[in-house]
Amino acid sequence: MKIGNVELCDKPVMLAPMEDVTDASFRLICKEQGADMTYTEFVSADALIRNIAATTRKLHINAAERPTAIQIYGQEVGPMVEAAKIVEEAHPDILDINFGCPVKKVAGKGAGAGMLRDIPKLLEITRSVVNAVSIPVTVKTRLGWDCNNKIIVGLAEQLQDCGIAALTVHGRTRSQMYTGEADWTEIARVKENPHLHIPVIGNGDITNPYKLKEAFNRYGIDGIMVGRASIGAPWIFREMKSFMETGEITSIPVAEKFSLLRRQIRESIERIDEYRGILHIRRHLAASPLFKCIPGFRPTRIKMLQAATFDELEKVLSFIENDIIPNLTDNNTLE
Fold first, then answer.
1. Amino acid 332: pLDDT
2. 30 is catalytic
3. Which residue, 20, 187, 202, 282, has fewest beta-carbon neighbours within 10 Å?
4. Residues with pLDDT less than 50, the chain
5. Is the link from the previous residue into 67 a cis peptide, with omega within 30 of 0?
6. Structure pTM?
7. Cα dist. 160→118, 152, 167, 204, 237 in Å?
């Protein structure tokens, strides 16, 4: 698959952009585990042009994680164009526009998925950003605002006419948020449109290697983004890639999974500080499938998520790894 001048493999598996999740450390780990492309957390155009430090830090890209896209969002043409030019100076491989974020603080202000209620402005922003930069521009969006306004098939053509190099479709409407099931048949309709020539990337509910392979085979899309299933489980890309290539899922030792989580903790602390770094990583620990099959785990989980220092957290993780897991009757559930 090719996005502009960016060459990817056939049927690439990508790390989806997620706020407070896809920081530089996590992206690099996912890349090492097999992700074919990574996306930054979304970047506010308004905050970027005001040079807010927390926002500009999101533009940092490690050479080892490439190809990488920086994603921006906003609701006005001028700030989005100015932000796009700033992003281009950070030298990402791709600039992605977020027209899909459903949360109230974004969509409620008209940005993200909120743009799906103002298609003329959505298209004006897209066209203006494409014309303002020389790197490939892509768009990530949803099926429409609600079930009565699934407009993605026609919108995809309009976005292509604006000059985007690829389109990612999350198979839900904004009103669904993250509830219900992603509608992959609607994503397939986008891909099947004979007037659409840019790559179509699907997103939504791809939680294991079996669903990944089924989506590629059944819906004919060009690439797949994996989002929430990677939180606390960056090794999912390794499992998915091995299944796509060999038909078998690589068995990753529990000790290696713990090592990856510990690396995330250390690098989060190094990037921010001990207290806030641990707060940041709690989302990964809370979501990690590594702990979900352990019976009677709730008291230990609470201790893990309440740990305020690295030493406290390491003590809990060591207890889980060395005392709880070896005594489980069925260790395979953790593999």
1. 46
2. no
3. 20
4. 332-333, 335
5. yes
6. 0.94
7. 17, 12, 8, 22, 29
